[in-house]
Specification:
mainly beta; Maltoporin, Chain A; 22-stranded antiparallel β-barrel; 5-stranded mixed sheet; 6 helices; 7% helix; 637 residues; globular
Amino acid sequence: MLLSRSSSSTYLRCSILSVLGLLSINTAMAVTPVSSDLDTVTDNNKLPQVELDKIVVTATRTPTKTSNVIAQTRVVDSEALKRYQGQSAFEVIKRQPGISHYTNGGPGTTSNFYMRGYDNKQILVLIDGIRYSSISAGGATLSLLPADQIDRIEILYGASGSSIYGADAMGGVIQVFTKGANVKRSNFSMTAGVGSNDEYLYGASAQLANESGTTLSLSASHTETDGIDATLPSTSTYKDDDSFESDNISLALTQRINEQLLVGASALYSKSNTEFDYGLNKDVYSDQENGAAQAFIDWRYMPGSSVRLQYGHSIDKVDTPAYNSRYDTEQDQISLVGQHKLPVGQGIYGLEYLNQGLDTKSPGYNLDDRDVKSAFLGYLLANNKFDAQANIRFDDYSEYGDQTTYNLGGAYHINSNLRVGANYAKGFRVPTFNDLYPGFGGDPDLKSETSDNYEAFIEYDTVLQSTRLTGYQNKVDDLIVSPAPTYQTVNINEAKIKGISLTSDWILNNYLFGGSYDYQSAKDDSDYSNRADDYNGNFLPVRPEHKGLIYLGYRLPSLDLRAEYQYVDDYYYSISNADSQLVESYGLFNISGNYQLTDNLSMTARLNNITNEKYVTAPGYNTDGTNFFTSLTYNWF
């Protein structure tokens, strides 16, 4: 393995490898910790349990077991997020089944992710229930949200979220939950970490809980790294590292008034600076501010029935002096969502108002503000024999008029372990402000995208494992693309996306293993008889046909180790499918671990791209070779 680092960095990397090696040896020998007074270690009945059947809220807007949800759902919980210390939410998402991605360099640079053939402009991202995205470019900058400020992430695949959340959920929903929602006891912790490319992390968090029903969580962190050279040597005049620096804070406060009434607020804020390469200019950078805040009142007026009133505000701001550009997105959202227990099943209803605004230095935007008024109804049935979900939603856009979406799905439990089901959903997406802006090659006469989405699955769950095979087929009308070389934004008549997704997770005693495999065919299926540029039959960009991941882990009360290998097939970077736009396949081997050194002190470590694979995700842009990160956290209870 060839490493181009300083001698001190090489020594630190070797130290991390040695630690992971020793931990692996200890694991193989099943050695128990020296301290015999730790009941959690000496009592085998208290070994950590991995819950395969989790509770989610994103798929239905009410707490529901994953074993009763129709559409495919995945949860990245707080235990799994420990492996991503020092990384962003984007690093977490890109390793999940059914998701592909590209980046234009190191941390903080432009990136995009795709879920089941839909790009991030068609995937709704929520932070504690509040919409978070750029109204100008579309999509959410997950690369600027630090993983250490997140409690869990829920991923809803497919278009069923459109009839619950509206536009931008045509390809799925990703919801980020900040820390502090479930504080059980008071504690304080401090974290310090170091990694490749002179990466440093400093952070502290405090959780307070008292008998009067008040909980408070406050976390703050600082991350900085010299980064890597964003562009390949053949495409950039200057050969310099492009640094990234970020300050982050999250806050959550709840107050239990009585058994029926709960009030609270939360916020996640990130301020960052990213350097990147821009032609012959040196030390070009962007300043960014991102985040969301919300306040709510939750009234549970009877068992199984409640009403929640929520106000939220989110920002996505970027200022790039070299471009003389500034794009400031702000969204304000008010929602009233209720659930009512019925004699059979549960009813869900809601009213929402959303205002989206853009402030920019770029002249000529014919649209910089819009309002959306929405209402939706839903029905949910979940028992040990049948599961059903039906939703309908009405959205009134100030610029695009009315849109109605709906979803209908059902599943049958053949026995206590085996379930089969199917789902149909109607989705839509309105163009972003950039899509409509002629200065960026946009077209003010663009149509909204609409889609028909079909999904069927078979699922087998036991105490030891959870396995699901899902097949899907989507038809998208008026898909918005910007093909090379002109990059003029156009509606193509139709696109077809079909594929299968297999996920399997196993637990055998202390061993965890499993993986995922995705096959996907995402192609332009338009009639170009009246146009010179014909993309009919071409692959949509950044949609590899094959993608897979396998992992093996070992878990004890004081130790959690995981090794994984991820493979990404060839794909085209542009819908033109030119040879120059072909990105070749690659495979990455990573290892990560958490170790409880004492009752109060824990260590996390990871080693990415162990084989030092040379690969790119976007033509002309660089990726990192072998890299590491390790951190120590001290807790006071």
